[in-house]
Amino acid sequence: MTTRTGNALAAQPERSLRVEHLVKAYQPGKPVLNDISFEVRGQNSVAIIGPSGTGKSTLIRCVNKLIPPTSGAVFVSGENISRLSGRALRHARRKIGMVFQEFNLVERLTVMENVLCGRLGYVSVWQAWRRTYPQDDIDRAFALLESIGLADFVHQRADSLSGGQRQRVGIARAIMQEPHVLLADEPTSSLDPKTSVEIMEVLVQLSEVHRIPLIINIHDVELARRFTSRIIGLSQGGIVFDGPPAELSNDHLKTIYGGEAWLQ
Ligand SMILES: Nc1ncnc2c1ncn2[C@@H]1O[C@H](COP(=O)(O)OP(=O)(O)OP(=O)(O)O)[C@@H](O)[C@H]1O
Question: Might you report a single GO cellular component term (predicted)?
Answer without folding.
Answer: membrane
